[in-house]
Design brief:
Blueprint (H helix, E strand, L loop, with lengths): L1 H32 L6 H22 L7 H4 L4 H35 L13 H27 L4 H6 L14 E2 L2 E2 L2
Helix pairs in contact: 1-2, 1-5, 2-5, 4-5
């Protein structure tokens, strides 16, 4: 169930990236045909925010966020799990705060009937909903990892840390050696 939430969040992030591409493509075709796409920049910005926030939970679950593992790995084994629990707890509390205020922002925009300031005015709460939902999904992903860490289960992102990516690039003949260019 929780894996489905992360995949849905990642899929929605990808959907909004495709939407940005379609808006830009429509804008390019429109310019060539002599018409404008109203509020294209606004809708692209809303899609970018939605893509960013929906991508947070999936990226966290897959181990894509920068972590403090470089520092934690240097500690003795008996300190690693407690320190990670502290870090995840602090992250969870900060995300609870952020999730609450993102959701509150949506409610205020709905309550005050705010609209966007573009060619096409739409209720402001509509583009804010994906931001709040993405933040809540991210909050749940961190809570999930916190619970797994407390229970002694290795979180999914830690299972992925062992997989190293190797970049075996061939050496170029134009590499500088001792200050001179090799030909």
């Amino acid at each position: 169930m929780k894996r489905a939430l992360y995949l849905l969040s990642g899929g929605l992030s990808g959907f909004f990236i495709v939407l940005i591409m379609l808006i830009i493509l429509a804008q390019i075709i429109g310019r060539m045909a002599g018409f404008i796409v109203p509020s294209a920049e606004d809708f692209s910005g809303y899609a970018l925010a939605a893509s960013t926030f929906f991508g947070l939970a999936y990226t966290f679950h897959e181990g894509g966020h920068i972590r403090v593992n470089l520092a934690i790995q240097r500690l003795p084994e008996e300190f690693q799990r407690p320190l990670e629990t502290v870090v995840l707890t602090v992250a969870f509390l900060l995300l609870c705060f952020a999730s609450y205020y993102c959701t509150y922002m949506v409610w205020e925009s709905y309550d005050f009937e705010e609209v966007t300031h573009g060619y096409i005015p739409i209720p402001l709460w509509i583009p804010q909903v994906p931001v709040a939902l993405g933040m809540i999904a991210f909050n749940l992903a961190v809570l999930d990892s916190l619970i797994e860490n407390i229970r002694g289960i290795t979180p999914h992102y830690k299972l992925l840390e062992g997989e190293e990516v190797s970049l075996d690039l061939p050496e170029s003949k134009d590499v500088e050696k001792d200050g001179e260019r090799a030909q």
